[in-house]
Amino acid sequence: MGTQVSGPRTVEDCDLCIVGAGISGLNFLFSASRYMSKADKVVLVDRNPTFGGMWNETYPYVRLHQPHPMFTVGNFSWSLDKERSHLATREEILRHFAECIDRLRDRVTLVERYGYEYEGHEEVRVDGGVRAEARLRPTASDDHELLIRTPRLVKAVGMRVPKPEPLTLSSRDVVSISPLDLDLLERGAEETPVYVVGGGKTGMDTAHAVLSRFPAREVSLIIGKGTMFWNRNEAFPTGLKRWWAGDMAMPTFLDLALRFNGTNEAEVYEYLKREYTLSLNDRCENFLSGILSEEENAFIAAHAHDVVEDYLVDVVDVAGRPVMKFRSGAERAVEPGTYVVGCTGSLFRDNHPYEPYVSESGTTVSIQSTSSVYLFQSFSGYWLGQLLGAGKLLDVPLYALDNERFFTRDRKAFTFAWMTQLLYNTILIMDVVPARALRDCGLNFDNWYPLYRQLPFLLNVKIHRRSYLEHFRRSLDRVCERAQVQGGPLATHSG
Ligand SMILES: Cc1cc2nc3c(=O)[nH]c(=O)nc-3n(C[C@H](O)[C@H](O)[C@H](O)COP(=O)(O)OP(=O)(O)OC[C@H]3O[C@@H](n4cnc5c(N)ncnc54)[C@H](O)[C@@H]3O)c2cc1C
Questions:
Q1: Complete domains list, the chain, with CATH
Q2: What's the pTM?
Q3: What integer is the mean pLDDT of 183-192?
């Protein structure tokens, strides 16, 4: 399988091309490689200079939400010599990815094309089938453009998380910074206040980091409607509790998905809030499936100078003094020099054109949020790779959701739609993939618990498979119709 230079373009043939070297693309490669050999050539492409995706660009004090063993590629275990409960740092995650790639290099002939931007592709008819021809442009060099010809193209661009940026503010008298710039706080006078804007995972991580690193500073949070988090102490209990207590993920999703009927999200939301989450106060409303511990939450609540439940619109200078303006119309004068750290929403902020998760011919797989089969794209990568390997990609009528549109239209309903979808699709997939595929899925949050604790859920689903599928399907159809979002099996699948 060769490479040829044709005019200003190099043409490269391969058996599989994966665009996106983040956790989703690597999980796809893990699964697909189960069905491939060293003779098979895989081209792995990323616009970044290396693999690892968003973890290369996110803020340095980020820590994993879940204990590190459950954030991996396929069944690859971590070599990190830390407690199982350790929440890995950015550097640790990137080191783990490096080890995973090494292991994938042993399975297939892996050609890594970093520093190439995927620009588009066509599916063309060739003898006996269809192949994709993808155009790649070098991002930083004078190298030739690449044309990749492949019978299987995977675009694993994931949630397209943007790099954190400072907020654009009118005032010249405040210092607007991004979470990447916390070191700047070393410089200003110790008593200069800090406002963290955003109450989600980035906001809470940032508040925690600033309060810990700069205890003398007055730190306030601006949290809008506020965010609820899964309670990590309950979701991933440590010590002996793991053997008998805790809120396991799949049973939790099942509990919520069975209560949800496609119309009653307000009621189920109250239940979710009461039973499974924690937050800075009882009024917090947003939920993005982030995870926080009781200790982190209590630390921030105890040490924050103020928690503002409003949305910052701008900071303007009025008579030589910066004034914060809020969406409610409220205003607040702040000290000159105040730091404003922008930690507002990084998920589903754009409106990308719709693209089905698999093309009609089965040649192109697209892992992104407009036609998504799991909220967690790492799961999409893992399971779609398994379906491709098993030759079932076009046979299984997975329920796809346009998460981008859903999230902006109805966040509460979206919460239960993605959980319902996760269960529905997992049941369909389990019907057709080998048992080994389930065992190899290191992403499964319930691997935190001993195997005997995972069995009742599997048995329960086996016994009630049919009625659960009917219930989930009805809820999903109803909620998609109400929210006016695209949802359902693709037209190419029988529904
Ligand atoms: C602050 C933050 C913290 C998070 N913490 C967690 C956590 O603790 N646990 C968890 O499970 N999830 C977490 N997430 C969600 C997280 O985004 C996913 O878990 C996961 O890492 C995303 O991987 P991905 O492969 O889907 O996407 P990415 O990591 O974004 O990878 C996609 C890759 O595709 C490449 N790409 C995109 N377009 C092109 C193109 N046109 N040409 C070439 N290359 C392209 C990008 O360069 C990128 O490398 C977090 C998200 C954020 C924002």
A1: 3-162+351-392+433-448 (3.50.50.60), 175-342 (3.50.50.60)
A2: 0.95
A3: 81
